[in-house]
Structure to design on (162 residues):
C-alpha cells in the first residue's frame, strides 16, 4: 500500500510534465489575431465568379469602400487577392453634424458592417496574370482575368531513318 501511495504523486508529476509540450504546442499553434480577422473578412465578403470563353470575372460587393482603398493583387504567382476596409463615418462629418445640431450623435442601431473585406482566389493554370482589369462602380468591384490562349496541338515529329 505504501508503494502505491508514494507512486501517485510521482505519476501525477510525470503526467503534468508530459502534458506541458501538448499545452505549449496549442499555444504556439494558436491562430493569430490577424489570421482570425482575415478569416472573418473572407467569410463575410460575398463573391460571384463567372467563366466566359476568354476570361474569368470576379464580382464582389464592397459597399462604402472608396475605390482608392481597394487592393487587387496577385500573390504567390496565381492567387488573386482582393481587399479593402469600410470605416465608420469620417470624423469631419461627425464634427459638422455636432456643429449643426450642437449635440453628440448617439447610435440607436448599428447594423451596417464595418471593417476589413477580403477574398483570395486560386486562379486556374490558364489564367493570364499579366492581363487583369478591375472596375469599381456603385459599391460593386468587378475584376476580369483574361485566359491564356490554348496551347497549339503538337505536330507529329518525323524521325529520319538512316
Amino acid at each position: 500500500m505504501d508503494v502505491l501511495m508514494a507512486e501517485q504523486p510521482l505519476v501525477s508529476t510525470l503526467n503534468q510534465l508530459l502534458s506541458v509540450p501538448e499545452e505549449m504546442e496549442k499555444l504556439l499553434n494558436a491562430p493569430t489575431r490577424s489570421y482570425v480577422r482575415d478569416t472573418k473578412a473572407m467569410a463575410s465578403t460575398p463573391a460571384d465568379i463567372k467563366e466566359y470563353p476568354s476570361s474569368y470575372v470576379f464580382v464582389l460587393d464592397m459597399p462604402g469602400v472608396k475605390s482608392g482603398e481597394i487592393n487587387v493583387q496577385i500573390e504567390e504567382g496565381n492567387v488573386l487577392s482582393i481587399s479593402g476596409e469600410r470605416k465608420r463615418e469620417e470624423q469631419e462629418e461627425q464634427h459638422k453634424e455636432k456643429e449643426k445640431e450642437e449635440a453628440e450623435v448617439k447610435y440607436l442601431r448599428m447594423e451596417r458592417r464595418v471593417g476589413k473585406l477580403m477574398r483570395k482566389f486560386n486562379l486556374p493554370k490558364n489564367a493570364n496574370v499579366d492581363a487583369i482589369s478591375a472596375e469599381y462602380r456603385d459599391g460593386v468591384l468587378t475584376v476580369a482575368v483574361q485566359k491564356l490562349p490554348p496551347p497549339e496541338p503538337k505536330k507529329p515529329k518525323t524521325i529520319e531513318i538512316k
